[in-house]
Amino acid sequence: MAQNRHSLKDVAKRADVSVATVSRYLNGFLELPDGTRGRIDRAVADLDYRPNPHARRLSLGRSDTFALIIPDIANPFFSRLAAAMEACAAEHGKMVTLHATMNRSDREIAALENAFQNLVDGLVFITNHMPPPEVAERINRFARAIVLDEDVKDARAPRVLCDNEQGGFLAGQVLYQAGHRKVAYIGGREDLFSTSARLEGLRRGMQGIAPLRSYVDDHAAASGRELAQRFLKDCDGETALFVGSDELTVGVLEVFRAQGVRVPDDISLVSFDNVRSLHLFAPAITAVEQPVDTMGRRAIEMLLDGEWDDPDFLKTRELLPVRLIERQSVGAPNPITRKA
Amino acid sequence: MAQNRHSLKDVAKRADVSVATVSRYLNGFLELPDGTRGRIDRAVADLDYRPNPHARRLSLGRSDTFALIIPDIANPFFSRLAAAMEACAAEHGKMVTLHATMNRSDREIAALENAFQNLVDGLVFITNHMPPPEVAERINRFARAIVLDEDVKDARAPRVLCDNEQGGFLAGQVLYQAGHRKVAYIGGREDLFSTSARLEGLRRGMQGIAPLRSYVDDHAAASGRELAQRFLKDCDGETALFVGSDELTVGVLEVFRAQGVRVPDDISLVSFDNVRSLHLFAPAITAVEQPVDTMGRRAIEMLLDGEWDDPDFLKTRELLPVRLIERQSVGAPNPITRKA
Hints:
Rossmann fold, elongated, six-stranded parallel sheet
């Protein structure tokens, strides 16, 4: 870096004190008589001295940085989460580094190693798959780590999650009340805690009726397209879909539109997230809304203010409430039989 | 941080060499006989020694980190840009820090100071307003900085921009060819380089006809709502709108829908960005598409591989091509007069 800076030595020389005195004074570890303090302050100002942050971190063991490990920042759910976390961290004078993993275990492990090597003050870990034990082991090395959005087996860290079971329930309830009895699920993989919670809730909302079929993959529009095509091939009397994310919903709607399947005339649909402009879609899409901004803020607040010395704090499990936004994508059942 | 680590001293002691030897060997500055090398490598492995990154940065003057200063990471245009930059940086073993400014000069200055203090290896600066001279002064302190998306007066740094003039031209052309002669503009502020380029292009596409009125503000859905309300009050024969971002388009469509203004029956509309799911909107929205992934990658590639010793390189101005995606929001003119 072509940055000319004065060193602590220059400040010490100009103020006519030792380097150790300047260092301890500037780090707040030393009380000094007014005269000496004045000389150091003037020398700092005259030389435009800025402490080298790496040296400072080395001596204080602190980086003022939080690491965010996140599947995909281009997905609006995660970009909203990241924005909420960055805003909250910035209010407290902290920076965030961003690591996108695309749900790949190798990238998750590399990002965890990197964040650990860099002595971050805290970690927020988000995944959308069931990672191997090596991931939880590495999360557990951090003095302060939060597991956000999706649970991670064996991680010793507080969780901040949305109430996935209640979300599934609200979706099931609105479909059941509209008369639907044969429902399919398109969403995240079945080994995810969020998936089992949502499916449990869905069954509760449907008065005990489980979905006929589940189609699962990553939360990406491309996956939504593929799963929707498989659903249309298999479809045997299903009248409604519960879709686990807005990203998947985008893919599903693209396929439905291309194949002339009308929502809700042919198939009713409830999405999950409500982070895309679903109110402007044709038709406007009914969705379970996640409290995404609150989730991001809570994760950072807990990193800052949590009772990290209390072993019970690591078992914290905050379930933030969801709500149903009713729009035009749920109608009366109209069985279509599309078996080839 | 509660992280127990072995120091360089421990490695040196175990390998029976001096600390300086271990340090210079591990940093690649020293050739050693096989025996000595083997002893150090074994000591590193036995002790699970990890170099302290802050000490390493202190000695190498390098942080392997790029700073991204960006108006709003929740806006899908910027989150797509950030995702492309993070992916490209990660491929080269670099991290990114994220600083959201909400286009506030004080936050831009604070983020620039912070990144400078942290000795980042490079800066990507994005703003959506005309910042005061203090911002360009601070950008100019960096050895490697890229100005992305929107020009910044007096910044001595390469620019990576989309071809805004051509974007305006394509919008003007499609509106003119559909028969529109009275057009209004809703978009970014008029002191932005992007705004003047788009308005110039619009006039060229409209065969020399300038928009009747311009409504300008930040690229946010809330601004779109406010500007659309003002437009509907003033509207005096305009038959089409050119809207400067998908965020503004969302706000405009919300107001149009609430007030029963139909697109394209009452007003035709062309958006700019194509980062939201405009193809699923009712109606599907015609838009000028920015090459957002390419823009993000180019910024990082230039930080990594640019000819930074060549003063002419700082004058680089890459204009990346845009294209028009035609959908259903442009129709024949149908003058509505809504003057109160």
